[in-house]
Structure formats: structure tokens, C-alpha cells
Amino acid sequence: xxxxxxxxxxxxxxxxxxxxxxxxxxxxxxxxxxxxxxxxxxxxxxxxxxxxxxxxxxxxxxxxxxxxxxxxxxxxxxxxxxxxxxxxxxxxxxxxxxxxxxxxxxxxxxxxxxxxxxxxxxxxxxxxxxxxxxxxxxxxxxxxxxxxxxxxxxxxxxxxxxxxxxxxxxxxxxxxxxxxxxxxxxxxxxxxxxxxxxxxxxxxxxxxxxxxxxxxxxxxxxxxxxxxxxxxxxxxxx
Amino acid sequence: xxxxxxxxxxxxxxxxxxxxxxxxxxxxxxxxxxxxxxxxxxxxxxxxxxxxxxxxxxxxxxxxxxxxxxxxxxxxxxxxxxxxxxxxxxxxxxxxxxxxxxxxxxxxxxxxxxxxxxxxxxxxxxxxxxxxxxxxxxxxxxxxxxxxxxxxxxxxxxxxxxxxxxxxxxxxxxxxxxxxxxxxxxxxxxxxxxxxxxxxxxxxxxxxxxxxxxxxxxxxxxxxxxxxxxxxxxxxxxxxxxxxxxxxxxxxxx
Lengths: 238, 254
What we know:
- The complex is a heterodimer of chains A (about 240) and B (about 250).
- Chain A has about 240 residues and is an all-alpha fold.
- Chain A has 9 helices and no strands.
- The longest helix of chain A has about 40 residues, at about 5-40.
- In chain B, helix 5 (about 150-165) runs parallel beside helix 6.
- Chain B has a domain at about 100-165.
- Classes of the chains: A mainly alpha (about 240), B alpha/beta (about 250).
- Chains A and B meet through helix 6 and helix 7 of A and helix 2, strand 7, helix 3 and helix 5 of B.
């Protein structure tokens, strides 16, 4: 590959970078609050809810994300076909039937569902570890001062948990940048998918290197961002 | 009428009876020292009084409000309503052995947090009062410091100020100097003495026998979940006829 070709491939990958970033951003935006919700469900005093949540986490962390992407993407059209064959009706059937799998947004939506479900499980475990690491004395001090449970959580516990989970969260976010490449398994036009195409076009492995460089730069930015955030929380130590 | 009345409190953990039949009164302005060997139930008693643990039986009244009593017919403990428990809690302050300051708030914020967010005091007023308390604790100029930047003795003084900011009617201390070296212990004892002079009602669980004798006007000696002996410091420390008390105190005599 000559320099011209490298430039051309880089340009193509840049064109498709927004697709990678879109998946990354949407996943992050929804998976973090979803992870908090899962943490709460896991800590639910009504045991069946906690058990169900544990099972969900077990499945999400115990099976490959790539498999989950494929399963969710193909589940809807397959269910539709089954429902049509069996003549199944009902709330769930009509919900599935109303999903337009031919629309432009279907693939992206399916990807987001898979990514958010998967990442929420990991974030939930990180947050749970953070919450559990706060000493009992903090709750007791807050309760002796007459603070409500909500005040205690929002004003005393959450800020301390945030500081503690930053390094583990950074790990997860870095992994997410790279995991977006798994979307190529259902032919989502992100940079790994495009790099593979260019590799075939030019019979060269260089497009893959360029794609690798993209991920590397993205993660360098993520790393810097997180170290800035970490410094912001350095004003106190526990 | 006593400000704190405790009758027949019992508490057990997994069948292990930690408190049995504890009864005593605390009068307004009294300083009560609770002494006894480790595992005698002193801290559990304090935690039951402060609603950090639930008692199994007995009766307790704080400033005229019944916090819990035992329904004899059902042999079950009955606690007051949530609102009443809350009101009682606001009359009681607790200073912990390991301070439990909020590490992410500076000293001033640690003290003003509850007055501002629980009592809904204006921030300025709460901060002025906090500064006065800090001055009293000998901590002027430390307003902006974070707990991690303070010595143990300073942290404990901040936590005393934090408890005082809510103007409790009774202040409890759970071994306030056990995490401190002798020099820092002196700082805390000085502060507690000051409070005693101001007629602050206090109940202090402590291993500092000399201090208990010096500052308390009532001493309770506990062992194995019961009150073995109680009385004035002179009675307990100077003139006890109880063998168990003698045995315990002999270890502290130099």
C-alpha cells in the first residue's frame, strides 16, 4: 500500500468513526444508570428479585457479548416468523410484531440493547463493590445526625462510591471502546468492519493497523479523561 | 424526672445474651461513666440507646418520651412511631470510637451538614455556629481542612463539634479515646471536661479510669452484660466491696 492508499483508507475509516462513537456513547449513557438500577435490584430485600438479578448478571458476564449481539439481533425476526406460524397473539407477540426489522434503526437499536444489557451487568458489579466498601460507620454517623436514608445515600455514600469506582469504571470504558468492534458480526458499518473490507480491497493488513490506531487514540483520550476525573477526587483520602 | 430512664434492657446476638436486665437513670447535667472489661456489653448498651441496635426487651424513656417498652402479654418489644424515634434521635448525640467523619467534606461542612440539611437552618447561621464550636474545640483555622489532613485527636474533636451542632440534650461517647495515643487522649479528655463544666449531660463508655474518676459524678461498672456495681466515683473506685470490681480495678492501679 502506498501513502495515497493509506490516506484513502484513513479517510474511509474516519467517515465511519461516528458509527463506532455512536454505539460507544449510547451504551455508556444508558449502561451506567442501568448498572445503578441493577445494583439496587441486587440489593433488594425481596429475595426473588435479588436472585433474578444475580441470574441476569451471571448470564451477561458468563456468555460472550458477540453471542448476545447475534442472539438479540436475530431473535426478533425469528420470533416474528414463529408467531406467524403458530398464530400466537398477546401482549408480547404484538410488541415483537410491531418492531420493524427492516428499518434503518433496527440494527443499531438491537446493538444498543445487547451492549447496554451486557455492560449494565459489569457496571452493576463495580458499583456494588463500591457501595459495599463504604464502612458501616458512615451510615451510622449519618443516621445519628438525623439524615434520612435518601440523604445518606445521595450526600454521604454516593460521592464516596464515585471516587472508589473510578479506576474500575475506566477499565470498563476502555474495554467498551474496543468491544464496539464486535458489532461487525452483524455487519454494522463501524471501523473494524470497514477496515476488513479495505483489507480485502488492497490485499493488505495495513487497514487493520490503521483501525487499531483509531482505537488506540480513542483509548488514550479515555485514559486522560479518567485521570483528570480521578485527580478531581483527590482532594481527600479515606 | 430523669432525662434518660432505662429499665431491664435485654439484648442477645444469635442466642448469646449480651445485655441482661440493665436499668439505670441519667439526670439532667449528670456525667455518667460506664466502665468494664471488653465484651461486657458497654458498647452494645450504647448502641441500643442510640437506636443503632434494637433491644430485645425492657423499657426506655428519653426526656419524657417512651422510646420502647415491652408488651408483657405478647412478650414483645414495642418501639415508638417513626416520627417519635426521629424526635428522640435528634435529642441524642453520639461520638464514635473511630470518629466516622465524612471524608469527602471539609471540617466546616462536616459540622454544618446536619444543621443545614436536617434542621434546615440557613447556611450562614450554621456556619457561624460551627465556627464557634471549632473555636471551643481549639480548632480555629481548620475549617477548610479535610479529615484526612487532621490528627486523630483533631478528628475526634471535629466529631464532638459535629454532634454538638445539633444541640443534643444528652451526648454519648463510645470509647472516644481508644483509637488515640495518650497525648491525643489528653486533648479529648480536656474537651469533655469543659463540657462537663457547662453541665452537658453525658454518658461516656471509657477505659480511662483516672478520667472516669475525675470527671464523672456517677460510675457504672458492667461485666458480662449486667451492672455489677454503680455509685459515685469515690464509692466505686475508692471504697468498693464488690470482688469483681476490685479485681477489674486492680489492673489499673499503678
